[in-house]
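Thread: "does anyone have the structure for this chain?"

Original post by V.I.:
We have the sequence but no experimental structure in hand. Need at least a predicted one for the grant figures.
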Amino acid sequence: MNARLRKQAKGIISARKQAGADESGWEAGRQAGWKHGYHVGACEALQQKIPPSVSAQHPIRLLYVRAGLKGPFPDLDQAVTEALRGMVSELIIAGPSDNLIALAARSRPDLVLVMHGTQVPGSQVQGIRALGIKTAIWLVDEPYVTDVTTVIAPQYEWLFTHELASIPIYRQLGCQVHYMPLAVNPAVYKPKYVAPQYQSDICFIGNAFFNRVSLIDRIAPTLAARDTRIVGLFWKRLSRYRSLSKGIRVSWISADEAASYYNGAKIVINIHRSHDDKVHNKNSRNLPGLSINPRTYEISASGAFQLTDVRQDLADFYMPGVELETYSSANELVDKIVYYLQNEEQRKQIALNGFKKTLAQHTYQKRISQLLQIVFP
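Reply from O.Q.:
Generated one for you, tokens below.
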């Protein structure tokens, strides 16, 4: 065979190999798309079977003061205001820097509900109470800022907190405190079809607090060997950043985009913040974190499979091994990542169970209804 024929033969063989690779890649993509579509459809079918939530209507005028901060708070404000609109006769919305005393004097609300409240001056709260108007605050970033919240909380008539560990402290301060867990807005965190850039084997969304950095560094070989996405601020702190860098996005993202990453992942890891982070926290009392974060609900509401570390109240909301999965060490996390990537049907069934539980019991509509019933029994 002369040189020209040999070149042609090599070209034909190469083309056939490429065609086979392209066909194989196309078929793998088709299968993945079909499976994802089936899962989204299963979630939608489950959702239709969940009875619509019916909340009591309160004939009141309510002034809601937004948290007004970056990060998760704008999404939280949106979720709460949407829930409130269906439960009160009139809703007035203000920011933490507004003249709340003047606004309350003009509108005469039955209740002023403040979200988070670290940006609301105490003089504003005192002035509102002097008008004879009820006040309540919902603390949603505990125990990480208790040096601040323990100062402002006693100024309100009602105090709601999502953190079990802080309740005894507020009782000692004379507060009328109630445990009010966080929840999810299912209009944002929901099953949906997502583009390829959001698809992965393993995903984590959140900032690189030091306990998270330590854990990710320890399991980096497992993550690097798979299609992994990590999104949030400060992730260049990783000592193994280079091995994971192709899947890291150092950025803050919106709730809608976080939901896209959750939907595209086979496994979503949840790592709670550490209570003793001296750099990022204001928690000189060193109160532990006993309560689950909003990400727990958000992952499950997206129809995603969740691997989370354990908080004390987790079992009050989800059944480990049935509605989500847990880990207590880096080694256990690696073992369960490997196991559940290989056991797709079991993984998807757990995700479906968690999705159903979340929509039935853990929405902001449910929480706001409980809060209003406490203030207006």
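V.I.: this helps a lot. The first strand starts at residue 58 and ends at 65.
O.Q.: and The chain has 14 helices and twelve strands.
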